[in-house]
Design a protein that fits this description.
Layout (H helix, E strand, L loop, with lengths): L1 H12 L34 H8 L2 E6 L5 E14 L9 E4 L3 H5 L2 E12 L4 E15 L5 E11 L3 E11 L4 E7 L8 E7 L4
């Protein structure tokens, strides 16, 4: 009797067998994403931001035979070829240049307009060519540039430019050297750029 009671008690403590076995979770395969990630062409066109960035002058100081003269410098880039952008996108930029295309490595044709007042009271229109090379983080943190330009001041003069830029080309400084021009032999410029 005791044995039958203990056996009945033991059977009541056991869990009831399930009728349907639960499926064992296995590996879950995820399919490819429905969104295709690929480089896209930048949608650049002259607008208010470009106009404001181009109209904003950079401060400059000219050094020569007289006292230093303060001035302003404007620049526009009609054509740029970038060798640092993704090869699936176009390397050409016309008039509007995104900062990454310039600082990641580029060659550009540019036009500069300098206006000086003080001991040198003059304006200079300087078409030129410039190369920009990335130095640190594909040029976003630091890039350097150098180039040359022509201008007409008592005959055609040649000027040479060199400088650097940081923050994706937003802030930079350059030095311009014109060895044949006694009145404006050197120009130091601080550049502030948005898009141009």
């Amino acid at each position: 009797m005791k044995r039958a009671l203990l056996a009945a008690l033991a059977l009541t403590c056991l869990p009831a067998p399930s009728l349907a076995a639960e499926p064992v979770p296995g590996p879950h395969l995820v399919g490819p994403p429905e969104v295709h990630y690929a480089p896209t062409e930048p949608n650049l066109y002259p607008g208010w931001v470009w106009l404001a960035g181009t109209a904003l002058p950079s401060p400059a100081t000219a050094f020569g035979s007289g006292a230093p003269s303060f001035g302003l410098r404007w620049q526009v880039t009609p054509l740029l070829w970038s060798f640092g952008v993704h090869r699936a996108t176009s390397p050409w930029r016309i008039l509007v240049v995104d900062p990454i295309a310039r600082v990641s490595g580029s060659i550009e044709l540019y036009g500069g307009f300098d206006w000086f007042f003080g001991s040198v009271h003059d304006t200079l229109i300087r078409p030129g060519i410039r190369t920009t090379l990335p130095v640190f983080h594909r040029g976003e943190y630091l890039s350097v540039f150098f180039g040359t330009s022509l201008y007409d001041r008592v005959g055609t003069k040649v000027a040479y430019d060199a400088g650097f830029s940081i923050f994706s080309g937003f802030l930079g400084a350059s030095a311009t050297w014109a060895p044949e021009d006694e009145r404006v032999r050197a120009i130091a410029t601080i550049h502030l750029r948005v898009l141009h």
